[in-house]
Amino acid sequence: MRLYVATRKGLFTIEPGRWTLGKPSFLGDPVTALVRQGDSVLAALNLGHFGVKVRRSDDGGETWNEVAAPAYPAKPEGAGDKTPWKLVQIWTLEAGGDSLWAGTIPGGLFRSQDRGESWTLVRSLWDRPERLEWFGGGYDHPGIHSVCIDPRDANAMTIAISCGGVWKSPDAGASWSLAGKGIYADFMPPERREDPNIQDVHRLVQCSAQPDVLWAQHHNGVFRSTDGGANWHDVKALAPSRFGFAVAVHPGDPQTAWFVPADKDERRVPLDGKLVVARTRDGGRSFELLRRGLPEAPAYDLVYRHGLAVDPTGNLLAMGSTTGGLWVSEDQGDSWRCVSAHLPPIYAVRFA
Amino acid sequence: MPRVVFTSHLQRHVACAESEVGGATVGAALEAVFRSQPQVRGYVLDDQGELRKHVFVFVDGRRAGLHDGVQAASAIHVLQALTGG
After folding, report:
1. Contact check, Cβ <8 Å, B80/A50
2. What 3-state class would DSSP assign to A198?
3. Cβ contact (<8 Å) for B55 and A49?
4. What are phi and psi of A253, to 5 degrees?
5. What DSSP character marks residue B45?
6. Residue B30: CA atoms inside 13 Å, Cβ hemisphere, count?
7. CA B24, CA B70: separation in Å to the nearest integer?
8. A252 at B interface, C-beta within 8 A
9. Measured between beta carbons, which residues in chain B are less than 8 angstroms from residue A9?
10. ipTM for the complex shown
11. Integer Cα distance of A223 and A217 in angstroms
């Protein structure tokens, strides 16, 4: 198990315990997502000029080989679809069963059953008429940033889209239903406030031990579900702000989750320049603010969607910011250690 | 036959040898390159078969698109735009 840090300028690998930066892979190139599948690690690159690429390492990141990148099919003439059918970014990679899943901008989900050698667009979702109502959140086009695969059944998936709500599939993507009842967006016109198809869930995570519990950091606040994502209630106790991008849930305890609150959406920096992590241990009824080891104010570090991760024990946490700060905690967030304050902008941290 | 030359910035990511190929247009010449070097296609063209937004093609020193014509003695340079980095 290593900590991988995907940045604007390459992929950094860190051994837990020593917490020193290893030699970077892809130095100079944006790395947007990473996943382990068996003995392999796959990384998604987003080359500024030459497009999205996928590389696979079968030796723990020492060497990498190019595998296929997802590609959208030819766009039909007169489709009435304003979205370009062109891969902009792989926003998340996940593995479950024999499959790899790539959530992408502009909103397509791709599946690979041969370790990334080929990818297929999940047409059952892409062809839903509701997709035409999705819109971009943070990017020009909508995107799938969260793919939760039920540990009890790799065919059962819950995904989240900015901005397209929460969707569930019971059959490995063969069919889909729009979930997310109870999630609301106060910034929308009143008629659309509770429309599940336009919700801007920033990040969705699932508790491994109790997969019916999901947590969502949404543009408008924090929501929690205890029935697999069908129904949600809002978590109002989070301070100092309910705005943020990242959430992590303890893999063994559905009551425990971490957030990195930011000043609400007009600013998107830590409130008063104070970087804090908020932790609940009671399902969101109350929160502790954790600051030990984090920088003194002013610190304008923003932690983006995939910038907060917990390891399978639930003890190790990692947090990376868009201004290149990287912190780890070995005690569930009680205290933090700065690994580096000078990395390139961090897109994703992951124990894998 | 037209000569196709790739920027060294692309050669950092994927093997793409300079080659002389047939073809009356930029697109046809590139297709000829991709037939012998299929790994290059996705770096130059996007999902819809269009030139990537941040890839430029010059034919004999002039900006060109896939449908522009080339001469037998033309040099086709494929390079990264200065946007997109």
Report:
1. yes
2. helix
3. yes
4. -140, 105
5. B
6. 27
7. 5
8. no
9. none
10. 0.92
11. 7
Q: Which residues pair with A278 in a beta bridge?
A: A259, A289
Indicate the pairing of strand B75-80 with strand B55-59.
antiparallel
Helix (H, G, I), strand (E, B) or coil at B27: helix
Cα–Cα distance for residue pair A31/A184, rounded to 1 Å: 32
Q: Which of A107, A113, A112 is nearest to A125 (CA)?
A: A107
Residues A57 and A172: their CA atoms lie apart, in Å, by: 25
Q: Over the stretch A125-179, which tens digit does the pLDDT of each residue have?
A: 999 999 999 999 889 999 999 999 999 999 999 999 999 999 999 999 999 999 9
* Element holding A124 (H helix, E strand): helix A123-126
The answer to whether A77 contacts chain B (CB < 8 Å) is: no
Tokens matching residue A1: 């198990």
Phi, psi of A110 (to 5 degrees): -120, 150
**Which amino acid makes up residue A302?**
L
Helical residues (DSSP H) of B1-85, grouped into ranges: 8-11, 26-36, 41-44
Helix or strand holding residue A222 (H, E): strand A221-225
Cβ count near A179 (within 10 Å): 23
How many helices (H) and strands (E) chain B has is answered by 3, 5
Test A51 with B13 for CB contact under 8 angstroms.
no
DSSP code, position B52: P
- What is the DSSP code (8-state) at residue B23? -
Give A267-304 pLDDT, tens digit per residue. Answer: 777 878 889 999 999 999 999 999 999 999 899 999 99
Strand partners, A161: A144, A165
Q: Taking the model in full, what pTM does it have?
A: 0.96
Q: Element (H or E) spanning A339, and its range?
A: strand A337-340
Please measure the distance between the N-terminal and C-terminal CA atoms of chain B and give it in whole angstroms.
32
Residue type, A99: S
Percentage helix, strand, coil, to 5, in chain A?
Answer: 5, 40, 55
